[in-house]
Amino acid sequence: MKVDVLIIGAGAAGLMCAIAAGQRGREVLVVDHANKVGKKILMSGGGRCNFTNTGATPANYLSANPHFCKSALARYTPADFIELVEKHRIAYHEKELGQLFCDESSKLIVRMLLDECAQAGVRIETSCGVEKVRKVDGGFTVMTSRGEVHAQSLVVATGGLSIPSMGATGLGYELARQFGHQILPTRAGLVPLTLSGKHQERYADLAGVALPIVQSRVGKRQFRAGMLFTHRGISGPSVLQISSYWQPGDDLRFDLLPDQDAGEWLLAQRQARPAMELKNVLSDVLPKRLAQRLCELWFESRPMRQYRDAELSQIGAQLHDWPMVASGTEGYRTAEVTLGGINTDGLSSSTMQSRYVDGLYFIGEVVDVTGWLGGYNFQWAWASGQAAGQVV
Ligand code: FDA
Questions:
Q1: What does the pLDDT look like over 105-158, one tens digit per residue?
Q2: Entry pTM
Q3: How far apart are CA 23 and CA 19, in angstroms?
Q4: Which domains are present in the chain?
Q5: Probe ligand 1: pick from 8, 49, 105, 336, max atoms within 8 Å of CB?
Q6: 17 lines ligand 1 (CB under 6 A)
Q7: Cβ–Cβ contacts within 10 Å for residue 322, how many?
Q8: Taking every annotated instance into account, which residue ranges of this chain make up the domain RsdA/BaiN/AoA(So)-like Rossmann fold-like (predicted)?
Q9: HSE on the CB side for 260, CA within 13 Å?
């Protein structure tokens, strides 16, 4: 079979690229080894797909080259994707911090992409594996499980390694290597952190305890959002966000009361409730079980009147700078994204084309561009897919 453009991977980036190329009149075939398209879109945002973030800027992405994502993000913006969503009359809402979710279901986003593909004349083959790719004169010959395909342009949109049970594979990295690209070390991102040994024993029985707002911190990077104790460690948005910046051995800290001066507050509590024990006072602003545990581990719980000013200031300071010794992450099994990937040095930032092989493109998560939690990763998938779709 001969086509103009073959796209490997019918996820967010691959489908967007297919739409853009199909609309330009290119004959496009998308193949995916999974039995359904857009599985990660379907499972995203708790089934409601956080499809973009209205505040997305290059500063919300991690990459060895922080400038690489600028061009594509500037040319296909959250407003462009919102326009598409509105054209398909999909109801959505802003949850917080610019995060847009479907009111009903992420299925509507997949249906929208499939409708656009159909209108643009794009063909999609699911349950179609890729066995071998060869560069030939005038394009590529790709051996798939459904036969040989010859394409002028080949777009690799196979995503990252997270959630292998949803179809993630390392094919994109293998193809990149085959054609001379460098792969920067990959690791799980936006992922719960694990604790071990005494650090786990201290908190294991708090599984399920949640704090609505904390500030996680690694070096100068900090995120203000919720936190949750799990059976294996810690999770919640503030932990997922910082996990992309944390590496084993890094100092990880939490401000448990980021909205107030804890020292001042404790002094005021001593004045107002001198007979009350510290653990009960802390239970007003922290989950009760956590407040008790902190008192067992760090501060002895006595009636407030027995604490000196300096002691309360010190307890306040500790609440703003609580150390957590994580041992690792839950890994690709539960990670939302894969950090690292195809080195952007080998790609054009305006078209995503390989600098080494004409007609070869890499888009989406397989590239070393990873967004924060909050709709940024889909925005990169849409934007990089569009960038390539305009030229393939
Ligand atoms: P994507 O993974 O979407 O697509 C890759 C496709 O390639 C898949 O269909 C796969 O089957 C196919 N493929 C892989 N190997 C292949 C092979 N060997 N042969 C053929 N096909 C192959 N982001 C966000 O912005 N908002 C959100 O709400 C969420 N929520 C979320 C929840 C969960 C649980 C996860 C795991 C991830 C998210 N994300 C997210 C991240 C987001 O899903 C992700 O960044 C994008 O889907 C990446 O789009 P891609 O098209 O690059 O890869």
A1: 999 999 999 999 999 999 999 999 999 999 999 999 999 999 999 999 999 999
A2: 0.97
A3: 6
A4: 2-187+336-389 (3.50.50.60), 193-329 (2.40.30.10)
A5: 336
A6: no
A7: 16
A8: 4-390
A9: 14
